[in-house]
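Hello forum,

I keep getting stuck at the same step: I have a sequence, I want structure tokens, and every attempt I make locally crashes halfway through. Rather than fight my setup again tonight, could one of you with a working pipeline run this one for me? It's a single chain of 179 residues.
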Amino acid sequence: SGVGALLQARGIGTYNPPAVETESSVPQFIDDTIAYVALFGLTGVIAGASRQMSFLLAGLSAGSRVVIEIGSFRESLVGIALLLSLSSYAIRIYLLWWPVWRTAKQQNDRRKLLFRKSRNTLMFLIGVSILVGIIGASGLLTNFVQQFILVYIDFFIRIGFVGFLVSNISALWEDEGTT
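Reply #2:
Ran it on my machine without issues. Output:
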């Protein structure tokens, strides 16, 4: 996040998509895509979800980010891209709150708590990120303000997630049913 934001601030890899009011950045796009894939995939792993479910969460995250970027190039695609991205987010909410949670409930108490913290932090901050992106794309925020808010949110998503994981790493290896 920091590297992508720094490169964007220096104008490296930036471009102005014709269909939206904000500036975009190739390094930030790559950084965000990798981070969101890792964070959502890892959240599935923390819950003890199957590989398929973890890959599905990761794939929906990547797809959502790619669709938004593609949609920014044509006005006729902006609405469709937004709908697809919001649908992807809704599907991830459903998956993390129901099927993945059912699997997580079978884990030890510390791992369940780690999953809930990770899931809730990730879903809240990604939701706020989407909201800021929509408001920014509509032209209600300057590019600087939008980028500042998004860098701040990215920082909290990554640092918060890593903090939860590092402070509770032993919970991933405890036997099921132990407290």
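The radius of gyration is 17 Å. If your local run keeps crashing, start a new thread with the error log.
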